[in-house]
Amino acid sequence: MKTEEFSVPRRIIGIPLRRKYEKTHLIKPGPVPNLIIKKERRRGLTIAFIDGNIVRQYIDPEFIFGGHDLVYSYIPKNEIWLEIEMNPKEIPFVFQHEFLERELMSKGKNYDVAHEYATIADKEARMTLNIGSYPGDANYRWRNLSNQDMAKKYYVHIRRPKEKSAQVRIAHAHEALLAIDKPVWAKLFNETIEAFKRGGVSR
After folding, report:
1. Within 13 Å, how many C-alpha atoms sit on residue 189's CB side?
2. Contacts by 29-35 with C-beta closer than 8 Å and gap 24+?
3. pLDDT, average across residues 81-103
4. Which of 167-170's residues contact partners 24+ apart within 8 Å by CB, and which partners?
5. Average pLDDT over the chain, rounded to whole?
6. How many other CB atoms are found less than 10 A from the CB of residue 73?
7. pTM of the model
8. How many other C-beta atoms lie within 10 A of the C-beta of residue 99?
9. Which of 176, 169, 178, 180 is CA-nearest to residue 53?
10. Contact (CB, 8 A) for 188 and 121
């Protein structure tokens, strides 16, 4: 595999200018190949499972995991994009993040506030489902471990699995997205939206 170094000149200051510079120097010219793997409807929006590699090569070098039309101008109106290649276990969380972020932005919040709130909701969902632990938690499981200790205790070398067929990836992604229809996810969604309505987001 050929790799090349890339750096943004120091004169380029600020995220908008940096992203513009990266797009100018990194994206491939020419027509964009088909990147849509599958579409379905959820909560009044179109959910598109996409090939993230094509997005990064031809449209946006910094796109990762997911996004929606109120942040990315290249995403069609009322759509959320999710990468088909991500671990299916992450799909409900990424969808929740993008959905809530978009919901808040559609009600007038700016991106920074909406993103921060969606990130908090993401963490709350992971803790509720007992699969997330963060440094501020009272029961943070790695509090007294150094990075070296954590690596020794938890690091597992995983061989790269064989490439899955498109049909298998689509089936896994669809099945993972169905998780948001289960009661636990409905409760998390509703609680988050209600918190917003009660003034949980003040800015």
Report:
1. 18
2. 30/58, 32/58, 32/59, 33/58
3. 90
4. 169/37, 169/84, 169/85, 170/37, 170/38, 170/49, 170/84
5. 78
6. 7
7. 0.74
8. 24
9. 169
10. yes
